[in-house]
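[Automated response] Your request has been received and processed.

Submitted sequence:
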Amino acid sequence: MLSDQDFTCAIAIQRKMYTSLNEVADLTDELSQAVSRQDQVSVRMFLSMRQEEIQRLTSYQAMLHRQCRQLLPEDARLLTQLNSGRFQGTAPSPSAQALLQQAQRNRSLLERVRRADEAVSSRLGGPNSFYNKKRK
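Generated structure:
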């Protein structure tokens, strides 16, 4: 059975992820403006800053995976579903509900960032952008 400490740890990591996602969103907006100005120096700077923040997000994701690997399989499955924001049904505790809500906020923000990134990538790379190549 997952403890409140397990949920508290996961919520703390999810909140750090939310902060990083906000930073990626802001940097993506700045990148978009730099692309519009055709300011190559700023474009490179914002791409580099975004990459650092994305690497931070990757390390947070690894922390969540490590936490799950240390649990019993049933508990790991539940925590993974909550962390993904895709848990179906009623959360088993207020702490689990808080984790689910934070994960859902993160997923929503991530989708907004993905859409903004797709727009910038398409403007920057044209037919050679990651998203245009992915569609082919």
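Summary generated for your ticket: The mean pLDDT is 94. The radius of gyration is 18 Å.
If you did not submit this request, please reply to this message.
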